[in-house]
Amino acid sequence: MRLRLHRPLSLARVMILVWVLSVPGCGGGGDGGSSSQDSTLTGQAVFPNSVGGGPVANAPFQVVDFEKPPDNNVVFTGTTNSVGGYSANIARTSSAAVIVTGTVGGSGKRKGETVRVSGLVNPDRPHVLKNFDGTTDIACEAGFSAVLDGSITAQELDAQRISNLEQAAATFVDSTNFFDPASVTAAANAVREITHDGAKPPGHD
Q1: Can you say whether residue 89 is alpha, beta or left, with left for phi > 0 and alpha for psi between -120 and 50 degrees?
Q2: Cα–Cα distance between 110 and 114 in angstroms, integer?
Q3: CATH assignment, 8-29+36-195
Q4: What is the pLDDT of residue 34?
Q5: Do the Cβ atoms of 178 and 144 come closer than 8 Å?
Q6: Residue ranges of the domains in the chain?
Q7: 107-142 burial string, b = 16+ CB within 10 Å, else e?
Q8: pLDDT in tens, 8-63
């Protein structure tokens, strides 16, 4: 299959990494308090199996609201707990990304290296529970990039579109090097192509 080139993808990944790496190890943040128009996001982030698996513990994370302009779209920062759990309270919106930057532990040669684990959510209701792994990370970059380059809107990145992206992303997890941003970007590019930016499930051209 001939793949379209989505040139903004590498830029999107750089922007994601800049946002994440610029966050200090803070304990949490937002606008303080909650209201009936808020959405509470919870779940667990785990490293891809190829990275060693296990929870992304004590790691900084951000929530990015796709409805906001790129220079002002980080609406929550925090730190995962000892088992990779995250919790964020944000104003409801059509679509967002939770982006976690984990540090590889253990005693292997990759110890101390960082790996991003992220996922797409629809914070349009009081509570959203979602776990993140390698599959959701590839899908997140695909969806994030599609919004960033104007191929789809934040409102179009709904639950069905996210599901389609994640179904396709699952087929690329085993062949993706999550230590290499270019490898993740290539997988995200392919996911965008075969799902038409999430409009169709994989295999439905």
Answers
A1: beta
A2: 9
A3: 2.60.40.10
A4: 55
A5: no
A6: 8-29+36-195
A7: eeeeeeeebbbbbbbbbeeeebebebbbbbbbbbbb
A8: 444 444 444 444 443 443 434 554 555 679 999 999 999 999 998 999 999 999 99
Q: CA 24, CA 195: separation in Å to the nearest integer? A: 36
pLDDT category at 109 given cuts 50, 70, 90 is confident
What is the reported pTM? 0.85
pLDDT at 30: 53
The alpha carbon dihedral of 110, 188, 75, 149 has a sign of positive
Structure tokens at 75: 């609406």
Query: Using CA atoms, how far apart are residues 134 and 126, in angstroms rounded to an integer?
Result: 26
Residues in the chain: 205
What span, in angstroms and rounded, lies between the C-alpha atoms of 142 and 154? 13
Sequence letter at residue 99 = I
Residue 168, CA distances (Å) to 78, 148, 171 in order: 29, 20, 6
How far is the C-alpha of 135 from the C-alpha of 44, rounded, in Å?
Answer: 14
Distance CA 173, CA 166 (A): 10
User: What is residue 26's predicted lDDT score, i.e. its pLDDT?
Assistant: 40
